[in-house]
Design a protein that fits this description.
Elements (H helix, E strand, L loop, with lengths): L2 E7 L15 H16 L4 H6 L3 E11 L8 E11 L4 E9 L2 E13 L5 E2 L3 H7 L2
Antiparallel strand pairs: 1-3, 2-5, 3-4, 4-5, 5-6
Enzyme class: hydrolase
GO molecular function: fatty acyl-CoA hydrolase activity
Family: Belongs to the 4-hydroxybenzoyl-CoA thioesterase family.
Length: 130
């Protein structure tokens, strides 16, 4: 599986004084999408962390098109764009109905507990492979 979608309802604490979802919360939505995609593929970040493999964000490219607001139901679509020995690239689209609110690309790397770069684990390569 290389794609996954999940619906979320915007909570009151995620909006700013103008009533719009604060831009920083979209990164949290991406994390939810990424975690649920891995879970749908039969994986679990907890297992990787127990093995000493930590997944970290190294780059975010985000385009905010329209704001989400309190109590909106949004869909977070997560797709694996590319996996190499050194990185995993996810693409995201957040929508409200037919409206695209946000498009983003997030690049991840795997490190050990000392912060040293590691190869993407074979289990992830297998789960996210073509």
């Amino acid at each position: 599986m290389r794609e996954h979608s999940i619906e979320l309802r915007v909570r009151y604490d995620e909006v700013d004084p103008m009533g719009f979802v604060h831009h920083s919360n979209y990164l949290r939505f991406f994390e939810i999408g990424r975690t649920e995609l891995l879970r749908a593929c039969g994986g679990c970040y907890r297992d990787m962390e127990s093995a000493g493999q930590l997944v970290v964000v190294v780059r975010v490219d985000c385009r905010y098109r329209k704001p989400a607001m309190y109590d909106d139901v949004i869909t977070v679509q997560t797709r694996i764009a590319k996996v190499t020995a050194a990185k995993i690239i996810h693409e995201y689209r957040i929508t409200r109905g037919a409206e695209t609110l946000v498009d983003a690309t997030v690049t991840l790397a795997v490190i050990d507990r000392e912060g040293r770069l590691q190869r993407v684990p074979e289990a992830l390569l297998d789960r996210y492979g073509d």
